[in-house]
Amino acid sequence: MGSCEHLLVTAEADALTPEGCQECLNLGMHWVHLRKCLTCGHIGCCDSSPGKHATAHYKETSHPVVRSYEPGENWRWCYLDQRLGQ
Ligand SMILES: [Zn+2]
Ligand SMILES: [Zn+2]
Ligand SMILES: [Zn+2]
Question: Which of 5, 44, 81, 82 lies in disulfide reach of 54, CB 3.0 to 4.6 Å?
């Protein structure tokens, strides 16, 4: 398994909806944890949340990398390569 170039990208878009998951806010749903798309700044909820909107966003847009949007957490996840990084 080679290295994942997506996790090496340091540029990061500003959060579009810093107040929470974009879809959950629209639908009046609740989330557990938040993830931020580095490509466009979309805020989505994690797979432990009912909406799973971060994964839905990846499936819709193919934007490969999200990072945790939780205070004190800074790990990243590449959907394309299924790899965790910093
Ligand atoms: Zn990757
Ligand atoms: Zn959501
Ligand atoms: Zn995105």
Answer: 44
Q: Which ligand is nearest to the CA of 22?
A: 2
Residues in the chain, overall count: 86
> What per-residue confidence (pLDDT) applies to 44?
98
CA distances from 12 to 3, 7, 48, 79 (A): 20, 11, 24, 16
pTM comes to 0.93
Q: How far apart are CA 77 and CA 59, in angstroms?
A: 14
Written as six digits, the tokens of 69 are 């949007």
Domains of the chain: 22-85 (3.30.40.10)
Alpha-carbon span 75 to 57, nearest angstrom? 18
Distance 13 CA to ligand 1 centre (A): 17
* Ligand having the closest approach to the CA of 59: 3
For residues 25-43, average pLDDT? 98
